[in-house]
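lol ok so funny story. i was supposed to be doing the assay writeup but got distracted and ended up predicting the structure for this chain instead. priorities right. anyway since i did it might as well share w the group, maybe its usefull for someone
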Amino acid sequence: MRFVFPPIRRSRNPLVRALSLVLGLAVVGVLLVFGVVVLGVLMAGGLVFLAVRQWKLAHGRAAGTARPASPKDPDVLEGEFVVIRQNTPIHH
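and the output, tada:
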């Protein structure tokens, strides 16, 4: 069973067609303006968030709560390792 939409009945009256075109353009314009406003709010919120974050980081460093020092050798990996030998059975 297929669902088929009824055929679109377009008006032959040129005034109604022009009015529907203007109405459609107005709706598209409102949606574009709304999108630009939302984008502006998101950008402003992001900038405020970044500014507050940078201020807190700078304020924390000034108060002496800076990040811990990095390791002496950055090529050293820390973790637990198991050495596997070819002929020796492994017991975990």
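The longest helix spans residues 14-62. The helical segments are 14-62.
back to the writeup now i swear
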